[in-house]
Amino acid sequence: MVLNMKYPIGAKKSTKKYNNYGNRGMGLEGDLEITNNYYLQTDQAIIHKKPTPITIAKVDYPSRLEAVIKEGYFRTPSTTDYNGIYKGKYLDFEAKETTHKTSFPLSNIHNHQINHLKAIFHHGGIGFIIVRFTTLNQTYLLTVEKLIKFLKNNNRKSIPLDYFKENGYIIKDKYNPRVDYLEVIDNIYFNGGNNEKNKT
Amino acid sequence: MVLNMKYPIGAKKSTKKYNNYGNRGMGLEGDLEITNNYYLQTDQAIIHKKPTPITIAKVDYPSRLEAVIKEGYFRTPSTTDYNGIYKGKYLDFEAKETTHKTSFPLSNIHNHQINHLKAIFHHGGIGFIIVRFTTLNQTYLLTVEKLIKFLKNNNRKSIPLDYFKENGYIIKDKYNPRVDYLEVIDNIYFNGGNNEKNKT
Questions:
Q1: Is A165 a domain residue?
Q2: pLDDT exceeds cutoff 70 at B12
Q3: What is the sign of the dihedral through the CA atoms of B150, B154, B160 and B162?
């Protein structure tokens, strides 16, 4: 049972409608949703985005069957947004967009998300980040191994675009699946160690 | 940054405070939270509960840094509540309590959650349900294999307690970890096929 959203007729000045699905199909998050649905429908992988963590403070019950959250707060996620299973392997990643043209600010990813990815790697899972440079219209996949390498050797607060070009993998734009990151994962982890790199 | 919960001084009649953490340490969900934290701290496994999926309809911004959800609705989850990685394997489960004494009503688990668990199994992951009979103070783990077997051979709307006793595994009460379900998983999947069963 999915409850319908109810939009207010007269919204307060400081109140904004929150479009959960307004961006579906637009932006990296929407593209990934379509892509993950495609993987699911074609039975290639089971990968889902975790719901946004929310602390609920007040709930109204206008009827016995309906519950309306009247006060809630966004929490900082303790893990990455996406995880699932692909070819029997545990897979885990975070996806971010940036309007920057020459580097990706690390402030976009929480420290505990990076630590989570490191732990996933040490437990034998596949971990990575997907970063889209929206202005350049380029989307990169960077494995947690290469992310760790960067953090070890740098005190910089952003990862240069060049680092993505040299150590990451570009994810080509497609019609379907829109952001075919599993093609990259195949090349890195499932082609008998033949780390063929998708060059720009 | 975790925003503090703000409780209303004068709550409306139909409004209830929602204790996100009120049950921490109590009930199966609280026990599993403590257990999963223990696994995480001891670096045995990385298993998290997914946040409750919520459709947000209205958000207030009383200040630039604060966002308050003013209208939201609970969504039906499309997957199980728990997943993660253990010994390199993808692990996925749903946990439920029942006050029933002789059977577990299948209405407690959504159909798409069962289908999700089946798909996980077919993709090579470890899937199961944890069911606590609160009145009996007994907690069982039933693998998705045995769940599928039951659903194939039965049209019943509940799984009898006896089926859990014969096909499931009891999870012993402990101090720490409180609900040591990985001990059961070890016995089933990681002891070289030695499916030693923890009998009551």
A1: yes
A2: no
A3: negative
Average confidence score pLDDT of chain A: 87
Residues 6+ away with beta carbon under 8 Å from B155: none
CA angle B118-B120-B124, nearest 5°? 115
Is residue B73 within 8 angstroms of chain A, CB to CB? yes
Q: Least CB-CB distance to A57: which of B18, B43, B62?
A: B18
Q: What pLDDT shows up at residue B33?
A: 95
Buried b (16+ CB within 10 A) or exposed e, B161-193: bebbeebbbbbeeeeebbbbbbebbebbbeeee
A141-164 mean pLDDT: 96
Interval B61-101: pLDDT, tens: 988 788 999 999 999 988 999 999 999 999 999 999 999 99
Three-state DSSP at B131 gives strand
- The CA distance from A69 to A134, in Å, is 34
Q: Do A18 and B87 touch (CB under 8 A)?
A: no
A173: CATH:
3.40.1350.10
- For B80, the domain range is 27-189
Give the CA count within 13 Å in the CB-facing half-sphere of B153: 8
- In-domain check, residue B81: yes
Cα B63 → chain centroid: 36
Q: How far apart are CA A16 and CA A22, in angstroms?
A: 13
pLDDT at A180 over 60: yes
Residue A156 contacts B where some CB pair is shorter than 8 Å: no
Q: How many structural domains does chain A have?
A: 1
In a domain, B184, yes or no: yes
Whole-model pTM: value is 0.84
- In a 3-state reduction of DSSP, which class is residue A92? strand
Whether A40 contacts A86, CB under 8 Å: no
pLDDT of A14 reads 52
